[in-house]
Amino acid sequence: MLSAPNLRSTRPGRLAAVAAIAALGLTGCAGQDDAAQAKQEDVTLERVAQVEKDEADKGGDVERQAEESEKARKAEKKAAEKSEKAEAAEKKKAAEQRAAQQKAWAEKVAEREAMEKAWAEKAAERRAAEQEAAEEAWAKKVAEREAAEKAWAEKVAQQRAAEEAAQRRDAEEKAAQQKAAEEAAEQKAAEEAKAKQAAEQKAAEQKAAEQAAQQSVATERVAVERTASTTSNDAVWDRLAQCESGGNWSINTGNGFYGGIQFKQDVWVANGGTQYAPMPHMATREQQIIMGKKIQAMAGWGAWPSCAAQLGLS
Predict the structure, then answer these.
(1) What does the pLDDT read at residue 215?
(2) Domains in the chain, ordered, with CATH?
(3) CA distance 73 to 65
(4) Which of 75, 175, 229, 236 ranks highest by number of CB atoms within 10 Å?
(5) What is the pLDDT of residue 38?
(6) Separation between Cα atoms, residue 306 and residue 166, nearest integer Å
(7) How far is CA 26 from the centre of its chain?
């Protein structure tokens, strides 16, 4: 007798098995009585019916499972397509957002660059204006300083000219007084000589000879002294410095004249004084005397009109 575990799992196999069970059940009852055989047939038919019922139930479950699986597959496909569309939409939206952000950032960068450019131009204009104002202020200051220096130089020159004029007047007055005294002395001497001429007539020739000899010696002495005093004797320059600057060879009072014998800077430079020192009062006494002799040889004692007149230098 066949049992359920011997049936196949496929539907065609199960139907064949049902048919085989029915055949065997019907033949296997041969030789039995009719009652037993009928009972056996009923049992067999019940089994066959049960198997067919089970097979029908199983077949329905398989079809339902297949339909549900197909529906699930379609639902999954639809969900996947929907998900893909949603993902594509999100990607598109994200790309549009990034593009919008990049555009906004580029606009901000351009705006910032424009602001920086405008600020740089304003700063350059402000610096140019400040520099121009500073240059104008400096030029004005320089002009004021030059005007002040020019006014001071003119004032000093006027003061110096007034002093020299006063010194010349004093020298002229002294010279006139000295000349009048000399003329008076000469006149008196002439009168005395005339008065004594008669008494001293005999000794006149001898005295005249002696006087002639003395005059010759005096003339030679004066010539020698004058030559020494005007060219080579440094004592003359000390006297001149004493008159011009009180004997101070390094004096610089700011009046435009420098050193012991009061050189002007342009005269010092023009005659080569810078080989000794940049300015006259910076040179030594001996160097100033050398330069004084050079100028005296070219211009004479007139280069120091007032003191030369006072010292009798000509």
Answers:
(1) 54
(2) 4-86 (no CATH), 233-314 (1.10.530.10)
(3) 12
(4) 236
(5) 77
(6) 9
(7) 125
